[in-house]
Amino acid sequence: MHSAVLSPYHIEVNSSFFDTFNYFFLILLQFALLRLIITSGIFQLLHYTWFYKTRKVSYDLIQSSQYIREIVSDLINITYNSAMVAIAIATGFIKLKSNYSITEALASFVLLFFWYETMFYYGHRLFHRPNFFWIHRHHHLSVTMTPWTVLSFSLIEMTYMQISAFSLVAIYSYFTHFPAETMIWYFIVNSVWNTAAHSNIELLPKSFPGLSNWIIGSTFHGLHHAERTGNFGLFTTFLDKLHGTDMPNYKNKLQQVWDFRLTDHSKSKSS
User: What's the rounded Cα separation, in Å, for the pair 261 and 182?
Assistant: First the structure.
């Protein structure tokens, strides 16, 4: 018998492993599917608007085969992710609670945000070393990004990402239950922000150029996909700046996107 979760989530404290796993797997899978359809779907719809034409990062043609590969990979990975998290909850490695203070919710959110930002940066940088790039190669099959590139990873890399994110939750759970809604809201923010960075649409405003110094948008990450030599951060540029891995041509590229004057603009190869 297991005691992975508390009664506010409609699972008895001593529910069996399989009851707990099935309950959370179905909830997590539905949540992940809905999140993917809404976030990637909205950014995909933007590809057919005037706004996309004026904020497009890359004009390279995107083949239908890329969309198919990415969507299939997305579906495999969200199923895999949902199963892994459900197992972690059912076995008690992750313990959740619904009763907590606003202070704890905010503190745990900030902690999870910077923990995963750090784990992602160093793992991502490692996977670009020649001996490890095979782990990351699947993601870089998408040279020009789409909103569906966001979860297009190998299962090995996805396992690293899962461990990176939920190791903190597991450590936290050793001492006390982790705020459930904090985890939910973090992954909503993660999904929207990460999809925006992969959308091939620059959302950072020209009117507030200072944001682009610290916040990662699609131009920053698009350069990473195109050249693979830097820009390893997830949401912020802090660690790239700290380690000198921020690409020097970023500002010039961003200004070109803002001014709608890319070198291949005359070709206007629409996706």
Answer: 41
